[in-house]
Design a protein that fits this description.
Elements (H helix, E strand, L loop, with lengths): L2 H5 L11 H11 L3 H18 L4 H10 L4 H6 L5 H19 L3 H4 L22 H11 L9 E5 L4 E4 L15 H15 L7 E5 L5 H12 L4 E6 L7 H8 L6 E6 L9 H10 L9 E7 L9 H5 L5 H13 L3 E5 L4 H14 L6 H14 L5 H20 L1
Parallel strand pairs: 1-4, 3-6, 3-7, 4-5, 5-6
Antiparallel strand pairs: 1-2
Helix pairs in contact: 2-3, 9-10, 15-16, 15-17
C-alpha cells in the first residue's frame, strides 16, 4: 500500500472521506509511530461504532453508501472501460483493509504494542459488476441509509428520519377496505403497473397518517422510500422529483401530512403541477397526502361571495386540486360498535383479558373527554388501561 496508489483513486475516491478509512489509510502509508497509532485508533473507533465485525465489511458498507461517479453511472449505463477501472480501484481498497493489523502493530515500539487495537481484516471480494448491481437495486449515498426522509430546503438534500414508528398494516384496526385499497395501489406502483396519487381525507384521529407510515414500513424491504414534506417544501417539488428520478430503480412516496391550503397559496399551483400536467414527471414518484378537508383548500363565504367576476370559476379552480388525486379514500369516525371493536382488538393484541361490559362505560367517557370516538382515542385509552393493569399486577 503506497500513498500514490490511494491518491490515484478517482471514481471511488469519495469513500476515503470517511474518517475511519482515512485513518486506516494514513496508518498504512505512515512511517512514524505516532501517525500509525493515531490512524489505527481512529479506524478502530469507527469500526466499533459501526457494528461491523471486520474491516472488509466496514469498507463494503461505506462503498454502498458512497455518492461517487460510478454510483451515478450505474443508474444509466456502464461501459466496459468504466468497469475495468473500478475493478482496479476496488483492488487498491481491498489491499487497504485486507492486510493484517498486526503489521501496523509491529511498527510500533515494543512498549506500545500491548495497547494497540486489534481488529479482524476479513475478506473483501466485491467486483465492479456486483457493486453496480447493488447501486442499481438499492440506491447509493444517503438514500441507501434509511427508508424514510425529510427534505432540507437549504441544501436541497434528503435527511434520514431516525427512530420511526414500526407500525405495520396489521396493527391498524377496522377500515379494512380503505387500507386494502391503498396497499393495492402501492403494490402496483412497486411492480411498475399504473398507480395513482392518493388522498386520504376524513375525521381526525382515524388513522390516515398511520396508514401511510404502516404501508411504507410494510414495503420498505421491497425498496419503497418515504419522503415526508411540509407545505413549505411543496414549491420545491420539481427539484425534489428531479432528485428522486436519479434513482430510477427505487420507488418513492412523497408524503404530505395534514394538508390544508389557503387561497392564493404559493404551494397550490406547485402541487397541482406535480400531480398532473408537469412535463418533468418522475415515474418512480407518487404523492400521498392526508387532510381533514375534503377539498384541501380552505374555503370561506368571502371566497364564494367576493368581487371576482367569475367566482364560480375560482371555486372550481380551488376544488380541482382534489380531483387531481386518482385515488381518494374517506376515513369516517367510528360508531360505538367500531370504537369498542378497535379497543378490544388492541387489548387482545397486548395479551389483556377483560370484560367488555366493564370497559364500555369508561371507554365511552374517555372518548367524550377527547372530543369524540376515534382509533386514536381507542389507542390512548388502551395504553392507559394496560399501564394501570401492569401497575396493579406489581403490587
Amino acid at each position: 500500500m503506497t500513498e500514490i496508489s490511494l491518491r490515484l483513486l478517482s471514481l471511488l475516491s469519495p469513500v476515503l472521506q470517511d474518517e475511519g478509512l482515512r485513518g486506516l489509510a494514513n496508518a498504512r502509508i505512515a512511517a512514524d509511530p505516532a501517525t500509525i497509532a493515531d490512524g489505527s485508533a481512529t479506524f478502530y473507533r469507527a469500526l466499533s461504532a459501526s457494528g461491523e465485525s471486520t474491516a472488509a465489511d466496514y469498507l463494503r458498507t461505506k462503498l454502498l453508501t458512497s455518492d461517487n461517479v460510478f454510483a451515478r453511472a450505474a443508474a444509466d449505463r456502464i461501459t466496459p472501460a468504466l468497469t475495468e477501472r473500478v475493478d482496479l480501484e476496488l483492488s487498491v481498497l481491498a489491499e487497504l483493509v485486507s492486510a493484517p493489523c498486526t503489521r501496523l502493530r509491529d511498527k510500533l515500539p515494543p512498549a506500545e504494542r500491548p495497547l494497540f487495537p486489534v481488529w479482524e481484516s476479513g475478506v473483501f471480494s466485491l467486483t465492479a459488476r456486483q457493486l453496480a448491481d447493488e447501486y442499481t437495486r438499492g440506491g447509493y449515498g444517503i438514500v441507501r441509509t434509511a427508508s424514510a426522509f425529510t427534505f432540507d430546503r437549504s441544501t436541497h438534500t434528503l435527511v434520514p428520519i431516525g427512530h420511526r414508528s414500526e407500525i405495520l398494516p396489521d396493527d391498524l384496526k377496522e377500515y379494512a377496505e380503505e387500507k386494502e385499497a391503498v396497499l393495492q395501489n402501492t403494490r402496483a406502483f412497486l411492480e411498475n403497473r399504473p398507480a395513482q396519487h392518493v388522498l386520504l381525507y376524513g375525521d381526525r384521529g382515524t388513522g390516515k397518517s398511520s396508514t401511510i407510515h404502516a404501508l411504507c414500513n410494510h414495503f420498505a424491504p421491497q425498496g419503497l422510500k418515504l419522503v415526508q414534506l411540509t407545505k413549505a417544501d411543496i414549491p420545491q417539488l420539481p427539484q425534489i422529483k428531479e432528485l428522486l428520478s436519479s434513482f430510477p430503480r427505487l420507488h418513492f412516496i412523497v408524503f404530505l401530512d395534514d394538508l390544508t391550503m389557503e387561497e392564493n397559496d404559493e404551494a397550490f399551483g406547485a402541487l397541482k403541477a406535480a400531480l398532473e400536467g408537469d412535463l418533468s414527471t418522475a415515474p418512480n414518484v407518487r404523492i400521498y397526502a392526508t387532510t381533514n378537508r375534503r377539498h384541501v383548500v380552505r374555503e370561506t363565504h368571502a371566497s364564494r361571495q367576493g368581487d371576482d367576476v367569475h367566482a364560480a370559476d375560482t371555486v372550481e379552480e380551488q376544488l380541482s386540486l382534489f380531483d387531481r388525486f386518482g385515488l381518494v379514500l374517506t376515513y369516517i369516525a367510528p360508531d360505538k360498535r367500531q370504537y369498542l371493536s378497535i379497543l378490544g382488538q388492541i387489548l387482545r393484541d397486548a395479551g389483556m383479558d377483560f370484560a367488555e361490559s366493564e370497559l364500555t362505560l369508561a371507554a365511552e367517557r374517555y372518548a367524550l373527554e377527547k372530543g369524540g370516538r376515534s382509533p386514536r382515542a381507542a389507542r390512548q385509552f388502551a395504553d392507559s388501561y394496560i399501564a394501570a393493569r401492569k401497575k396493579a399486577a406489581k403490587k
